[in-house]
Amino acid sequence: MRTLDLLSSAVSNTFRSKTRTILTILAIFVGAFTLTVTSGLGTGINRYIDETVTSIGASDVLTVTKAPVSSGVANSGPTEYNPDAIASTQPGPPGSTVVAMTPADLDTLSGIEGVERVQATKAVSADYIQLGDGTRYLVTVGSLVAGQTVNLSVGSTPDNSSSGLQLALPEDLVVPLGFADADAATGATVKIAVTDAQRSQHLVEATVVGVVQPGLAGTGSSIVPNQALTDALFAAKNVGVAADQQERFAQASVWFSPDATTQQVSDLKTRLADAGYKGTTVADQLGTFKTVIDGIVLVLNAFAIIALLAASFGIVNTLFMSVQERTREIGLMKAMGMGSGRVFTLFSLEAIFIGFLGSAIGAGIGIIAGTAISSALSRSVLAGLPGLTLVAFNPVSIATIILIVMAIAFLAGTLPAARAARADPVESLRYE
């Protein structure tokens, strides 16, 4: 019997007992459906994180702070005053501080092996933002590292190479400031107020070049300025500050080679630590979040695997019953010259076909259900996160799931297939 004939025979034999086969397929369907949806959930969330990574920082940049001198003893009491401390712009508890960096630190960083460029991050706090003589709104000032992009609904990213004062306005401020919509905001001039060390307020005018969509943690009321606007706000903020106190920074951005391997980046972090600095990448900042998501998906996938293992017993039972019911047929096939290997292949193909049907149906309905759920959530609960597809599907992942289920079905079918292959033709023909 040729391979094509074996395949055709396996497909037709599968539905000899329709009820038993359908129940087995449904058991496989549950596992494949769950695997598909949970895989899509992980793909969707991680894809969204990857797409918004550049809104936090460029992939070839380390955010560097000066490591505080530690006694090595944990201290849960009051923190000793440090005149060199400065408010931290890194995520952490309210009131977190780091040791201030100076131009000397920037020179030190530039001399470390693997560092291509260093730029101080100028932290600026603003009082409010205003359009014309309209209502004033509290605002915070973000930062834009070279190579970084932001998730825009309209307009463009502020240009760090431009001498013009530019900013990207958060979507949350568009209507409150008095704009009809995001398109109306683009190209308009707004005023940003900052207070200097002498308690005098300065108004800095800048052009809105884009409107930022809410991100993973929302944009709130944080504007994204270009370097020229950051410098202007920084200068206004430092009026009245002693010259030797102006060049103090909470952190700096350190560029390394875009082609650097994970090990090379790790070695660079070690060299920075040896010099008294701490460097973190975007991947470090998001690593915990992605680990949690992957852990949740892994747990859900474990339940799907359990369902598939339970379904595999159904495959064993289905094929054992099929072997028993077709004992005389197996004896006849072997008496007519069909080898044991061909008999084994025939029953194995039946198992694989059952696995294929269950997994294909489960994956197909999983894609439909996942897409519908994701679409519904994006219009309701997740409406504040434009661009997030909660459940997204990767063709390679779907194909992998189907192949894994087919492999499980094959393994489950080996025992009954082996029993059929070992059948004695004479005894089988006598079977009543």
Automatic annotation (TrEMBL):
One of its GO terms (molecular function) is transmembrane transporter activity. Residues 302-425 form the ABC3 transporter permease C-terminal domain. The chain crosses the membrane at residues 21-42, 296-322, 343-368, 388-412. GO terms for cellular component: plasma membrane. The keyword Membrane applies. It is a multi-pass membrane protein. It holds the Pfam family MacB_PCD. Keywords: Cell membrane, Membrane, Transmembrane, Transmembrane helix. InterPro entries: ABC3_permease_C, MacB_PCD, Macrolide_Exporter_MacB. Residues 72-93 are annotated as: Disordered. Residues 21-266 form the MacB-like periplasmic core domain. The keyword Transmembrane applies. It is found in: Cell membrane. PANTHER family: ABC TRANSPORTER PERMEASE YTRF, MEMBRANE COMPONENT OF TRANSPORTER-RELATED. Belongs to the ABC-4 integral membrane protein family. This is ABC transporter permease.
